[in-house]
Amino acid sequence: MSIQRSNSFEQAPLKIGAAAAANTKGTEAAINIMEMGGNAIDAAIAAGHVMGVVEPLDCGIAASGFMTVHYSATNETKVIDFLGTAPMLAKYQLYAVNDSNGDYTIRVENQHNQIGHRSIATPGTLRGFEEAHARYGKLPIKELLEPAIKLAENGFSVSYKEALRMARTTHILNTTTACRELYLK
Fold first, then answer.
1. Based on the domain organization, do 68 and 9 belong to the same domain?
2. Is position 67 within any domain?
3. Is residue 93 part of a domain?
4. Distance in angstroms (rounded) separating the CA atoms of residues 73 and 153
5. Which residues contact 6 (CB under 8 A, 6 or more apart)?
6. Predicted confidence (pLDDT) per residue in 7-59, tens digit
7. Residue ranges making up the domain that contains 143
8. 112 in the same domain as 37
9. CB pairs under 8 A, 24+ apart, for 6-13?
């Protein structure tokens, strides 16, 4: 396989499928899973778990989401909703501001959706991945978790984006002893 490089992406002959993730480690995991005989759902689950290791502030098992599955042969589309569940009494006062870049944004008063007991929701990612795997997966879940486990055990270089994000959120990561010990080494 010959890979052609451009300024912002790589392209190669399509033989098994395509994968894209915000971090190359996620993409590599997805492609490796497809090379092992896994399908697109297996690849997405493996990439999702890897992303939770290499970019934990943006993705991971404590998150939520949804998965759109499209069958090109039948032109049928299914959605698995695994958005998190907020506590019933969680109510937030929203306000509009211009952020430091001058962009208009909506915020939650006193960052209650990010800091403290009101910021907690029951994550849905594992439930969603489990449902997607049960419905559509091909490889055993153990094989899909292996790339993330290896990265977590062996370590990896933190991307520039993740380092920048962590620097910008140091004040949040410094809120508790557990976060400090895990993320601010």
1. yes
2. yes
3. yes
4. 40
5. none
6. 555 666 667 788 999 899 999 999 999 999 999 999 999 999 999 999 887 78
7. 4-84+121-154
8. no
9. none
